[in-house]
Amino acid sequence: MKTEPVMKTEPVMKTEPVMKTEPVMKTEPVMKTEPVMKTEPVMEMETIDLRENNRMLIVGGTGGTGSWFARYFKDRGFSVTVWGPSGRVDVAEELGVAFAGDLLAEVARSDVVVLSVPILETARVIEEVAPKMKPGSLLMDVTSLKAGPMEAMVKWAPEGVEVLGTHPMFGPTIPTIRGQTVILVPAAGRCDTWLSPMKEAFREGGARVEVLGPQEHDEMMAVVQALTHFAYISIASALRSLEFDVGRSRRFMSPVYEIMIDFVGRILAQSPELYASIQENPEARRVRETYIGECQRLSELADDGDIAGFQEAMRAAALHFGGTDEALARSDRLIGLWIENREGERRG
């Protein structure tokens, strides 16, 4: 009532000719009735808020990766429940989440079901779990392969259940997701509602999110994971065959050599089951065969004393690789940090 004087001073509107002659001002109410203006922000807010206070079940949530995601999604507003075949209720208690006593009953009431199980078990678990899910819910996996699991999830998830393949490019030993990469693989036409909030859930923690199709994902991972793991494990296997004393060799290592050896050791310290299953990628066989063929070719050049041929092979590889100067600069910084850390440990 006190602000009513605005109505009395409105004559400004009458005396300002622009207001009378400019019909746009009189027809402006269209903006009020235009549904796009009203509904567009609402849809966005609803999509972002979908993950808040929703029930999430992590199948395999008492394992390393499952436990990591239980903590992560709990911190982001989900009501998390875990289940594992070992029945480790103590792990759930330590995580501060519930343990599902009846797996399929929990599946039926969950808004999001995340499958964190070994790759070779994924298809069987999908067939068991997915048909029990309710319309409007989301089925996710966190396996390293995507073509097979995506096909199974789309096949067994009922109509109205969305499907989102997920591949975290890190292991459960990392303290934070910041700076890590998460690859999302939405099922075509079956992930319209949940894709945006799940992207946001990962980005909130500082992750870089990439979206790929299942075939492109597996082709990329055949190199990014299967080839690099294969190369590191083959180095370790060669050291074993040579009966080479790795520990003693550290006395004579350059920083580059020691960093490389530490990465080999990093792979060896983890699950052989996981790394063997990554080699099951249907695209990996061709990649391994190409790698072995190139190793053989380079070995023959060296054995034959063909120095020019070896040099040419290296130049051709560098030309294809691209950005070698930048790679050198980045690795120099890494070496500098490594030396700093080592010297700090010696002083400490």
Task: Provide a descriptive summary of the structure in words.
- The structure is a single chain.
- The chain has 348 residues and is an alpha/beta fold.
- It has 2 domains: 49-212, NAD(P)-binding Rossmann-like Domain (Rossmann fold, 3-Layer(aba) Sandwich); 218-347, 6-phosphogluconate dehydrogenase C-terminal like domain (6-phosphogluconate dehydrogenase C-terminal fold), CATH 1.10.3660.
- It contains 19 helices and 8 strands.
- It has an 8-stranded mixed β-sheet, sandwiched between helices.
- α7 (64-74) links the parallel β1 and β2 (79-83).
- α10 (119-129) runs parallel beside α11, α13 (214-241) packs across α15 (255-268) and α13 packs across α17.
- The protein is globular and about 65 Å long.
- It starts with a helix and ends with a helix.
- Residues 1-46 have low confidence and may be disordered.
